[in-house]
Amino acid sequence: MNLMRLPKNFAPKFAIITLVAATVLTSCNTLPTQERNFGKCGIGLVIWLRQPKTSQYQYFTIDGGVFAYGAGVTALNMKTFWQTDLSVEQCQTIRQCAQDGGWFSESPPSSSPEKGDLVADIAVNWDGGRQQFTASGDQPSVKFLTDFLTQISDARFQRALDRLPTAGEQPQ
């Protein structure tokens, strides 16, 4: 008796089971939880912004008043490649946007974006609790906050570019 022999229809069944399991696992919306050290911002925040049609990804975290950013493959893997301290004014803007957007309420403004639309997976912690939800990336509070965080990122990148010598200049 050969115990290693598999039924003829095993391969298609195995493929379907594998596909279903992979779909279930990748659709689980579990973002990292930020520590209870909210720092000067008063919140911990994770936003994973993704555009599946164009394979564009951005990943923003705020923890203890420190903003971290990742894009591309780094963001796809929910990782960041740099971080910077936020000013008190920036923290106030971020917290106010989250509050105005209803992110601290019992039922945050979650939605089910259409397939291929810009999607934001959001986890926010504050003194009163924790919320995790999915929203359209075009929702006003999500768009404002991700644009604001992208501006902070762009300013940091520009400062790095400004330190580079211009063509023809030799470093001293």
Would you kindly provide a written description of the structure presented here, covering whatever features stand out?
The chain is α+β, with helices and mostly antiparallel strands and 172 residues long. A hairpin with a 4-residue loop joins β1 and β2. About 4% of the residues have low confidence. Strands 4-3-2-1-5-6 form a 6-stranded antiparallel β-sheet. It is globular. It has 4 helices and 6 strands; from the N terminus they run αβββαβαββα. The protein has a single domain, classed as Mago nashi protein (2-Layer Sandwich). Helix content is 34%, strand content 25%.
Write the layout of secondary structure elements.
Layout: H1 10-27, E1 43-51, E2 56-63, E3 66-71, H2 72-76, E4 82-85, H3 88-100, E5 119-126, E6 129-136, H4 140-162
Antiparallel strand pairs: 1-2, 1-5, 2-3, 3-4, 5-6
* Helical proportion, percent range: 25-40%
Low-confidence regions: 22-28
- What is CATH's topology name? Mago nashi protein
Q: How widely separated are the two ends?
A: 80 Å
Helical/strand content category: alpha+beta
CATH class: Alpha Beta
Mean pLDDT: 81
Number of domains: 1
The ordered H/E elements are HEEEHEHEEH
The largest beta-sheet arranges its strands as: 4-3-2-1-5-6
Q: How many individual helices?
A: 4
Largest sheet: 6 strands, antiparallel
Shape: globular
As an assembly, this protein is: single chain
The number of E-state strands comes to: 6
Spatial extent as radius of gyration: 21 Å
The assigned CATH architecture is: 2-Layer Sandwich
Strand content: 25-35%
